[in-house]
């Protein structure tokens, strides 16, 4: 196993959802995601007024890859990591900050939203999210039935011929 | 290990296409993208140079469907094959669940195949993992080339103990692409079923 998988479920998952929802309201951002370091979406919320989000799989993959590349760059410059990344365009921006070594908080927002406000609330949320992450337990093993193999094979046949 | 999101009841598996430059890794993904119905796949993301050589990676999410109540997805990645992009290759191997090694049958690419396999072993070891711990399939591509290397010769340098399952392919015609993906997907799911 190269990278630990996050066992985010039950109460910790609810706590993460609450933090993300609060962050969305407090900052006025469009989308707020928690992404693991492998590039998978752990949780996401969007503002009610926001348009349909971009492909979240792709966003998460690029955010995680970008963070990994940034960390590699930091190491080359003698830093342990660069904990935050900001990308600002004409219409909008994206702000990404590390949640410990396990996840990345990602906020996507319009240019009308002040970056200072986003950073301020994000840093508060990260303190809380870090506490949640510290208390995560091992994922319970999934018990698949005996017919797991045949169901999976049938789906593979459907998908790939 | 696959990422299992209990809250969303999702299983996400990461499959990486590895191999020397120009062996056909991106072509494999493009074929999958063009043939899988759009409701079962996401967008294909390619981070490439101006001459379409992979710079960082290509990415394609695929929905398998629901297996015993868990929505199961495969995330397909390629790595850049050119030797000087090793930092990118190391990053893409992060969290890998299955590997397709795409070997090039061109007569002058035997050494490149061998060096890419050695590079894969080294990069996995840097993540603290032995190459034998990851489900892997060998795809011997470009079988239509005139003077193509024999499959025995390629297997002798990539997999001398004949431990890997392998498929012949002509990826730009779609031959062998789905067979390869199906075999590696099955291995990943079998491992998942065993709780590894």
Automatic annotation (TrEMBL), chain A:
Name of a matching Pfam family: Robl_LC7
A GO biological process held by the record: positive regulation of TOR signaling
InterPro entries in the record: LAMTOR2-like, Roadblock/LAMTOR2_dom
Molecular function terms, GO-annotated: guanyl-nucleotide exchange factor activity; molecular adaptor activity
Residues of the Roadblock/LAMTOR2 domain: 16-109
Name under which the protein is recorded: Roadblock/LC7 domain-containing protein
Annotated source species: Deinococcus detaillensis
Organism lineage string: Bacteria, Thermotogati, Deinococcota, Deinococci, Deinococcales
From TrEMBL, chain B:
Keyword Ligase on entry: no
Pfam families membership: Arf
Keywords: GTP-binding, Nucleotide-binding
GO MF term list: GTP binding; GTPase activity
InterPro entries referenced in this protein's UniProt entry, alphabetically: Gliding_Motility_GTPase (IPR052705), P-loop_NTPase (IPR027417), Small_GTPase_ARF/SAR (IPR006689)
CDD domains for the chain: Ras_like_GTPase (cd00882)
Keyword GTP-binding in annotation: yes
Name by which UniProt lists this protein: Gliding-motility protein MglA
Lineage: Bacteria, Thermotogati, Deinococcota, Deinococci, Deinococcales
